[in-house]
Amino acid sequence: MFKKVLIANRGEIALRVLRACKELGIGSVAVHSTADADAMHVRLADESVCIGPPDARESYLNIPQILAACEITGADAVHPGYGFLSENAKFSEILAAHNVTFIGPRAEHIEVMGDKIAAKTTVKKLGIPVVPGSDGAIHSVDQARALASEMGYPVLVKASAGGGGRGMKVAGSEDELANAIGTARSEARANFGDDAIYLEKYLQNPRHIEVQVFGDGMGKAIHLGERDCSLQRRHQKVWEEALSPAITAQQRDEIGMISAKAIGDLGYSGAGTIEFLYEDGEFYFIEMNTRLQVEHPVTEAITGLDLVAEQLRVAAGHGLSVTQDDVRFNGHAIEVRINAEHPETFRPSPGMIDAFHPSGGLGVRVDSAVYQGYAIPPYYDSLIGKLIVHGETREMAINRLSRALDEFVISGVDSTLPLFRRLVNEPDVRSGDYSIHWLERWLAAQSA
Q1: Which of 38, 86, 111, 187 has the fewest other C-beta atoms within 10 Å?
Q2: Where are the alpha helices (DSSP H) in 98-140?
């Protein structure tokens, strides 16, 4: 096992990784910007190193500074968390060149899955079902028109290097296609430095289902069930649950085993998530995230597995601690992302937290790195914390979530707690009858 892990991240995920390291007896190093000098992960780590000013490009995305922190502290591995450098193949390669282990998949797998066109081609060969669309990049409007006419409208124009909803535009007709292509290219160029785009059939009312997979890097792989992440705003997940209320146990087993076999055949190492759109009983691949997901706690709740500890074991060469036959799904879990945002306008609300009292009780978990008197900086994402509940049934989990939301106290900044207190009582949410478009339509109706 590793002697010392440097955590190349901040906030709740840095604290989550630190806890796993402590429980495994591994030394921990926190890196931080000057804005995060008082952060909880900095306070609790065995060692800490300041790596730059608040701007993430000069701190959390500064590879030379992180490498220097490894050398100063003698860290023999780096856990990237999620976001920042977690899916940066170059970072993985640089660490390897300096004999530091990157706790994640190999660089070539990060690279191929980071390019949505290459990822789609790769998984199709591995037997994973994909959304009908172009086999590669679209180079002209005429080419797009011919393909769209063949598939039928509406179609989705997507940036190859995209993420977070950027570089994605829907064209409902041929008249809208040229503008959608131009806008998607512009957004992709501005956000990712790559304006390559491709075309897919736009599914009208799908759910977002993702399968948690783990590989040992030597051909063995398992799946840990699925998560339903269909409640989204601007392609950003706000509510995640496991298992999905929309699919059967047989469907779960089928898509799970297809996904596990594919990453085993790929020789993939560590945690990964294969994301699908699901409509009319069919799954369609959209992307693979080669890292730990924000919503991993719901999988931990229903399986009893520590996914970060599993990452550490696999990266250290110890292989998977469980086989597929060992995996059992217990009950239902839901996670909501509580952000420092206005609950109606979603305007960010950085500032001092005057009071912070997280929920507690049976089946309740709160992953957060904030505390009373902590000032949420304006430089990073607005996540305050994640509230996770677990119950024997989905109904019990929702009732427990309702109770936990009522207990949660945050003051001094706006938060999205009021949004979830309303959502948890919506009939469609309680019944599980919603798609990826439901939340935005509901929000529009509320503001009308």
Answers
A1: 38
A2: 107-114, 116-125
| Contacts of residue 36, Cβ cutoff 8 Å, sequence gap at least 6 | 10, 42, 377
- Could you please report the per-residue DSSP string of 272-328? EEEEEEEETTEEEEEEEE-S--TTHHHHHHHH---HHHHHHHHHTT---SS-GGG--
pLDDT tens string 158-174: 888 866 667 889 999 98
Asked if 220 contacts 407 with a C-beta cutoff of 8 angstroms, the reply is no
Spatial strand order of the sheet with 77-79 comes to 47-52, 27-33, 4-7, 77-79, 101-102
β-sheet bridge partners, residue 392: none
Residue 347 annotated in active site: no
pLDDT digits (tens, 9 = 90+) for 392-441: 999 999 999 999 999 999 999 999 999 999 999 999 999 999 999 999 99
pTM of the model: 0.91
SS3 state at 229: strand
Q: Per the residue annotation, which of 207, 252, 291, 400 is the catalytic one?
A: 291
Q: Which helix (H) or strand (E) holds 428?
A: helix 427-431
Distance between CA 100 and CA 97 in Å, rounded? Answer: 8
Domains located in the chain, CATH noted: 4-103 (3.40.50.20), 132-201 (3.30.1490.20), 207-447 (3.30.470.20)
Q: What integer pLDDT is reported at residue 150 of this predicted model?
A: 87
The H or E element that residue 65 is part of is helix 63-73
**H helices, E strands: number in the chain:** 15, 20
CA distance 148 to 90: 35
